[in-house]
Amino acid sequence: MDTKRTTFNNRLLPYLLLAPQLAITLVFFIWPAAQAVKSSFEREDPFGFSTVFVGLTHYRQLFADPNYLDALWRTAVFAVSVTVLSMMLGLAFAAAVDRLARSAKVYTTLLVWPYAVAPVVAGVLWWFLFNTSTGLLPFFLERLGIRWDHDLNGTHAMILIIIAAAWKQISYNFLFFLAGLQSVPQSLIEAAAIDGSGPVRRFFTISLPLLSPTTFFLFIINVNYTMFDTFPIVDATTGGGPAQATTTLVYKVYQDGYVGLNIGSSSAQSVLLMLIVMLLTFVQFRFVERRVQY
Amino acid sequence: MVENRPFLTFLTHAFLILGFLMVALPVYVAIVASTHDVSTLMSGPVPLLPGSHLIENYSTILTSAAAAHGLPNYSHMALNSLIMALAITIGKISISILSAFAIVYFRFPFRLLAFWIIFVTLMLPVEVRIMPTYKIVADLGMLNSWAGLTVPLIASATATFLFRQFFMTVPDELLEAARVDGAGPMKFFRDILLPLSRTNIGALCVILFIYGWVQYLWPLLVTTDPGYYTLMMGMKRMVTVQDGVIEWQLVMAGSVLAMLPPILVVVFMQRLFIRGLTETEK
Questions:
Q1: Of B13, B186, B217, the CB nearest to A232
Q2: Interior CA angle at B259 toward B276 and B52, to 5°?
Q3: Number of folded domains in chain A?
């Protein structure tokens, strides 16, 4: 990693400049992470007087626990659904806005603000909209013959958090897709138009392939978002229920550790989550290198 | 525009307007619901037009109502949210710009190690290390304090990378000229680097203000004293009532208050917002 051609040659100053950032990182990030790794291999007695090294026991228990495997599968379904839904809507809006010249700015303003809505607020707004007694949507669903009840029906609860989480993320995807579309060379579009291909065909044969780096980047970012930033949506609305139907991996770490005080298992779950984030970050950064090239 | 297709343009507008209505629906319903009284809301689906209880509901939550849930007034919680968001924004920007300055403009032992330590924070979001982080903050006696609420959140790899990337594009000649004129590192930082970074700082401010404002899990863990509750905690307490009915008109009024400030920031500082979003890439 490079510095400037010329640099300052103070000895102590750079350490002083880095000190606050490094201190916070070591105390509040690296130390707790190391603690999580350590206690995932230990069992503490109920009074906290002694700890015993238990090796991989917690991990083995997790992978034998149907609840954990369910949460793993559910998180995957949740992440992929939110990602696909919000990316498709973001792309559709971006493609539409990209077609318009004068009104593009107005529509951009109309579509970006949900990014600023807090996840917990987004969750509560949709929860209210789907509320079985006062909500607007169950009233219409009833006419279609669907009895909406996310308090009892796990699938309904899952759909609810998918919609709330995807809604918030549309604007992010929209902005990145719009930036991507605007950097597609106009000459390619014109050449294709002269050769007689219409807007729809141009979109699928020129714009979409050229957007693939953006698409891949957004896929990773969205999966990351859905896995880690949607905790407030689950916590304030479904509370992981009914019957664990919306308990995601992060929610389970919180439930087992902070609420249930099962430190060993919660730590092992933390470590597994760290591995997932590392994998996602690795893929993202490997890819960002290539991303600028096209 | 490559070709003129009026019908397609019409369809595009129709699609976008429909899309906007769909995206805005939950917020519209929240605003409408915050203007009705509880009996209207309990007797069937939400009306689609505003009612007459707007002033009543908002003045209730701003001055007293939340007390029934053991909550401070919304004005108090809004102030807490503002303090937290500003402290996180200023803290993150200050420590990140200093570390980026050190990494780019100095050569010293363990420079690469420092860089990697900062990088690692990307892989350790609070959500994956809830218990041990809570324990450290508790051991340091930082529960229920402003320091506990903000300091653990201000380490930032993305902001550091953004400043590092920007500093790499600052011409070397500026540094050489400054050195010839006898400027030390801090003078160079203050008089040259800082003014040049203005736009980047502005863009980061917008993104980080939103980040700080919407924090949920961390305040939930470290504050049990209602005096430190932010608007997000208020939301949670208002909707998790053990017995009785949720007072939707107040919850919705609270939601509107909780989302208004960051939405206004995004709408009015859209250029900086988009810049900040696309350049920090996370």
A1: B217
A2: 150
A3: 1
